[in-house]
Specification:
With about 800 residues, this protein is mainly β. It has a 30-stranded mixed sheet that branches. Strands 2, 3, 5, 6 and 7 form a five-stranded antiparallel sheet that branches. Strands 10-11-15-16-14 form a five-stranded mixed sheet, with no helix packed on it. Strand 21 and strand 22 form a beta hairpin. It starts with a helix and ends in a 25-residue tail after the last strand.
């Protein structure tokens, strides 16, 4: 009862605090009353012109600056290509708590010529109250790259060799495109094939609030660039890179806009070969077994990203997105497995494996959306519905050749065939409702997520000219997963100078695999809290907490067994449990420097593990749980214009981990380790209109749970220049010293393994892009996620 009284008292205090403040709203237009989308608005004290708050106008040119004290102010508006606007003096008091300004009409700057493209170099990295932002538009780092390449430049983001993405020490990352979630196959297609030149910005939220799925420890929102110019415009690009093998990738983007319609599309294709050279050694008391393989994946693909937005008026927008892709991949893998005695180079026997694979993947994705401003108070409704269809037809033909001491054949070759067709359906429906008050904001929402996967794994051995099923390595089943979620989030000011977001999310998930007894149900409540403060000296401070869950996926739960070679097996784990974690984040930024830190404690951490058999020499890889994992991360980002011609974005971070858990038949294991990462991206303005980029990265030796990584470094450089008025050419050299070689080792119980892998990262690349259509001075479109607490210098903007 006492706790309830205290809670009510705190709530009344917060309400009284919020009700004692005021607001100013207005709309900014340019010539012909066209909205000055995303113009910069600032509020100044009339007595000394000091900045009190800042905001960005929305796409319709509307803005609101809330949570203001009584006093006399004036409003200033800045917009590229137009003269700065300053309002008359405005007074807020108890008799006049809010003001709506007359229409603000901007005047063109006579220094800006018609039909001339004006380019500005924004700060590459910006720290907001709840996210870090990489500004991409017109940056040299976007030229000739795909989205996956772009993420490598983003602070705290790591793109690993297997394509997985990690933010700081968080490996469960939700990736959104324009604030929308898509199916896994469609997202993978977007990251690999969508041009980075069509990206406006990348936002990283290290501790997302209750609006986002509780299964994700971090969020990356990729905001695409769509022209606000009426008429038709577009861009064509083509790139070729050469390493061990070549890759050719053309790309075309079009955008057509009228007063109410915006229609856009992107088509990309490619012919590309991906080469891998890997060496694995497994050590047993008397024997060493190696796996030395080279692999080439030959891709031919076509991807389409299309859509349309219809705005019948300034308050309502209906959207349609249609995405599709077709990928054909032929794989050739040759593996040598030598058997040697310890401390001897004498070869006991040799196993050679020839694997020819063929894969055809098709993905179709449709998204319907609605965004509406429901009344003059700013109530907003967002609805998103996405359906994804994915089909895969996979076949592997594998032949094993055994050789004895004198390199003579030991028995006949063994031939097997693995068939793995799969059909998957994903459905996502989400509704978000925002209720702004005069001093605060409530966000409510619900989400439904469905996955259905009809999967077959069939291994067949060739006997006497006929293939026969091997039931030990074959299975099939239909997997269903349903997730229901709802959330509430409150955002406002407390004690005048602190911004607060307080949220609670409820999720219920059911998982079922037919033909087995696997059926799981999970329910959980996941609170979140975010506090941020703008200090008087222009610095910012933020603290956040959240509880998260990660649920096992289909590939981990299914009780399958897949043979990689006779001594390497992969299998599912029906006993896998969900993991729960508590995460604390903080940041401090001042000027060009941002400090950030995280501590996360996880129970039943889900990760890849190994089990070994000393007698059969077989290693089995499976997904399992680690009982307790503690990890911490501290870092620094420095983004600064050192001179007029040199801009740098540099990062330094230190991470540590401690793991205590039984694994397989080893009862009590403890792992701990520290590691450091240093990276620096430098952009130079060179003579004769050239621009250059130099990137350097170094990772020290470090550990993550059972895996220990060796040090690694790489250096990349590029030069770019605008040609033919609207064209651009970029020449780059990636991994110049061929040093991006991943080396790791793991040792516990029977397991003793080392690995060294190289993924054809040393490449020389030439790309050319050309823009066409009407190209006047315009601010790029930015579609917000809808939950920002700060925009501009001191927040409060809308």
């Amino acid at each position: 009862m006492n706790k309830l009284v205290v809670s009510v008292a705190i709530f009344m205090f917060l309400t009284d605090t919020l009700m004692a403040q005021f607001s100013i709203k207005g709309k900014v237009v340019e010539k012909n009353t066209q909205a000055a989308s995303f113009s910069t608005v600032s509020l100044h004290l009339s007595k000394d012109s000091s900045v009190v708050k800042g905001a960005l106008a929305n796409e319709n040119g509307e803005f609101e600056i809330a949570s203001i004290d009584t006093g006399s102010y004036f409003v200033s508006v800045s917009y590229i290509g137009f003269q700065k606007y300053n309002s008359a003096v405005l007074t807020l008091n108890a008799a006049q708590p809010s003001l709506e300004l007359p229409l603000i009409q901007l005047v063109e700057d006579s220094k800006v010529l018609d039909e001339v493209t004006v380019k500005t170099q924004r700060k590459l990295i910006e720290q907001k109250a709840d996210r870090m932002i990489l500004n991409v538009e017109n940056s040299v780092i976007a030229k000739g790259n795909k989205v996956n390449d772009l993420l490598k430049y983003t602070p705290m983001v790591q793109v690993r060799g297997d394509g997985s993405i990690k933010v700081a020490n968080k490996s469960s990352v939700l990736i959104l495109v324009d604030g929308k979630q898509t199916g896994a196959a469609s997202l993978d297609n977007f990251l690999k094939n969508y041009s980075a030149e069509e990206i406006l910005r990348v936002e990283v939220i290290t501790n997302p609030p209750a609006k986002y799925d509780a299964s994700f420890g971090a969020v990356i929102n990729i905001v695409t660039r769509k022209s606000l110019e009426l008429g038709l415009n577009g861009r064509f690009s083509v790139a070729h890179s050469q390493g061990q093998y070549g890759r050719f990738t053309p790309d075309l983007s079009l955008n057509y806009r009228t007063a109410k319609w915006n229609i856009f599309g992107n088509a990309s294709g490619g012919v590309a070969d991906y080469y891998v050279d890997q060496k694995i050694d497994r050590f047993f008391p008397e024997t060493t077994i190696g796996n030395y393989f080279t692999s080439v994946d030959s891709y031919k693909y076509l991807s389409l990203f299309t859509g349309a937005d219809f705005s019948p008026n300034k308050n309502h927008t209906f959207g349609l997105r249609l995405n599709s892709s077709l990928n054909r991949v032929n794989n050739e893998t040759d593996t040598q497995t030598p058997f040697k005695r310890i401390n001897s180079n004498t070869l006991d026997s040799l196993l050679n494996t020839r694997n020819l694979g063929r894969n055809t993947n098709e993905t179709y994705d449709i998204n319907l959306s609605y965004t509406g401003k429901l009344d003059s108070t700013g109530k907003e409704l967002n609805i998103n519905v996405t359906q994804t269809l994915y089909s895969k037809d996979s076949r592997q033909d594998i032949v094993y050749y055994r050789f004895g001491l004198n390199n003579e054949p030991s028995g006949p070759p063994r031939t097997i065939r693995i068939l793995n067709p799969s059909n998957q359906k994903n459905f996502i429906a989400q509704i978000d409702y925002a209720i702004p008050t005069s001093k605060a904001r409530w966000d409510l929402g619900a989400k439904y997520f469905y996955i259905g996967n009809d999967n077959v794994l069939r291994q067949e051995d060739l006997f006497n000219g006929n293939y026969q099923l091997d039931p030990q390595f074959s299975n099939s089943g239909f997997y269903r997963e349903n997730t229901y979620a709802a959330y509430v989030n409150y955002g406002g000011k407390i004690m005048k100078s602190w911004n607060m977001q307080l949220g609670l999310r409820a999720e219920k998930t059911s998982q079922e695999l037919t033909n087995t007894n696997i059926k799981r149900d999970y329910f959980g409540l996941f609170p979140s809290l975010n506090l941020s403060k703008e200090l008087k000296n222009g610095a910012g401070l933020g603290i956040s907490f959240s509880r998260k869950v990660s649920r096992p996926g289909l590939n981990s739960l299914v009780p399958y067994r897949m043979i990689v070679d006779p001594y390497s097996i992969m299998e599912g784990n029906p006993g896998l449990k969900p993991q729960f974690s508590h995460s604390f984040d903080t940041y401090f930024n001042k000027g060009s420097i941002t400090l950030f830190a995280n501590y996360t404690y996880t129970q039943d951490y889900i990760t890849d593990l190994l089990r070994g058999d000393a007698e059969t020499k077989i290693y089995t890889q499976f997904t399992g749980n680690l009982k307790n994992v503690h990890d911490a991360y501290i870092g620094l980002n420095w983004s600064h214009n050192l001179t007029k011609w040199w801009q740098t974005n540099s990062n330094l971070s230190v991470s540590g981990t401690y793991t205590k858990s039984p694994i397989a038949d080893v009862s009590d294991l403890k792992f701990n380790g520290l590691g450091a990462m240093v990276s620096s991206t430098n952009i130079f303005t060179l003579p004769k209109s050239w621009r250059g980029e130099l990137s350097l990265s170094y990772n020290s030796p470090n550990r993550w749970t059972i895996w220990r990584m060796r040090s690694i470094y790489w250096v990349s450089a590029s030069v770019t220049r605008d040609i033919f008025k609207y064209g651009n050419i970029r020449i780059s050299a990636e991994d110049i010293f061929r040093s991006q070689i991943n080396r790791l080792y793991v040792s516990y119980g029977v397991i003793d393994l080392t690995s060294r892998g190289y993924n054809d990262t040393q490449r020389f690349k030439v790309s050319f892009s050309y823009g066409f259509g009407k190209r006047t001075v315009k601010q790029a479109r930015y579609k917000a996620l809808g939950n920002e607490t700060e925009k501009g210098r001191i927040g409060g903007g809308k």
